[in-house]
Amino acid sequence: MTSVDRLKEIILDHTSHVFLITDPKQPDNPIIYANDGFYELTGYTKEEVIGQNCRFLQGPDTDRRAVAAMRRAIEQKDPFTVELLNYRKNGTPFWNLLHIDPVYVEDEGQYYFVGIQKDITDLKDKQSRADSSQTELDLLSTPIVPITASASVLPLIGQIDERRLEMITERLTTGLADTRVETLILDLTGFQMEDEGVADSIIRLGEILQLQGIELIVTGITPETAMKYRKLDQSLSNFRSFHSVKQAYESLQQ
C-alpha cells in the first residue's frame, strides 16, 4: 500500500460521515469495507461486519416496503435515499438516513455500492413530539360544548387554515355520528382565517352534517371578515346565521 493509499484509508476511517462499501458481484452483496464511524454507530466489530449483507441492521419494526424499494434500486443500479429504522448490536433502535450510490470502477469493469449513513434519531423524535403536540393542541382548541340535549357549540379559536378545518370536519363526522345532536353551532367569533379554502371547507362541513341529519348554524361572523372574504360570506348564506351564540340559542328555544 502506498503512502497516498494509506492516507486515503486514514481519512475515510476518521471522517465524520458513516459509510460502507459493498460488492454486488459477490454472493449476497456483502460489505467489503466500513469506516470507524460505522462501527461506533452500530456497536458491531469489523469481524462481525465484513462479509455480511447490510440486512443484519434490520429488525422487527423496519419498514419492509422501504427495504424492498432499496433492493430494487440496487438491482437497477440507481442512487437511492431512504429513512430506515435500524438496530444496533445491543438491540437499540435508531433512525438511519441512508443514501446509496452505485460507483463504477472502470479499471475493474464492475460496480460497487457506497452507503452513506446518518443517525437522525434525535430529529425524528423531535418531529414526533412536535406532531403529537400539534394534534393535542388542535383537539384542545376545538372543544364541542353541549348547550342543550340536542344542540352543541363548536367555537373556532385562533388561526384557522384549510388543514385544521379538515381535521375538525373529520373529528365531527365521527364524533357526532352516534349522538343525539340535531344542531351544531359553529361560532366564528374568535377565529382568524388563514386561507380562502376555509370557506369551501365550511360548505363541505355543512353538507356532511346535513347528510347526518344535523343542521349547521353559524355565529360570530363580523362585518369586517365578511367584507374581506366575500367567498366566506357567500358560503354562510347557505346556513342560518346569528350575531352571537346567545341569539342562536334563543332561536332554538322558540
**How would you describe the shape?**
elongated
Tell me the fraction of residues in β-strands, as a range.
Answer: 25-35%
Low-confidence stretches: none
Element pattern in H and E: HEEHHHEEEHEEEHEEHEHHEH
C-alpha termini separation: 95 Å
Look at the structure and give the mean pLDDT: 80
Spatial extent as radius of gyration: 29 Å
| Tally of strands | 12
Helix content: 40-55%
**Tally of helical segments:** 10
Largest sheet, if any?
A: 5 strands, antiparallel
Please state the structural category: alpha/beta
Query: Strands of the largest sheet, in order across it?
Result: 2-1-5-4-3
Pfam families: PAS_9 (PF13426), STAS (PF01740)
Organism: Bacillus daqingensis
Keywords: Chromophore, Flavoprotein, FMN
InterPro entries: PAC, PAS, PAS-assoc_C, PAS-like_dom_sf, STAS_dom, STAS_dom_sf
What does this 3D model show about the protein?
This protein is an alpha/beta fold. The protein has 10 helices and 12 strands. The protein has a 5-stranded antiparallel beta sheet, with helices on both faces. The model has no long low-confidence stretch (mean pLDDT about 80). It holds the Pfam family STAS. It comes from Bacillus daqingensis. Keywords: Chromophore, Flavoprotein, FMN.
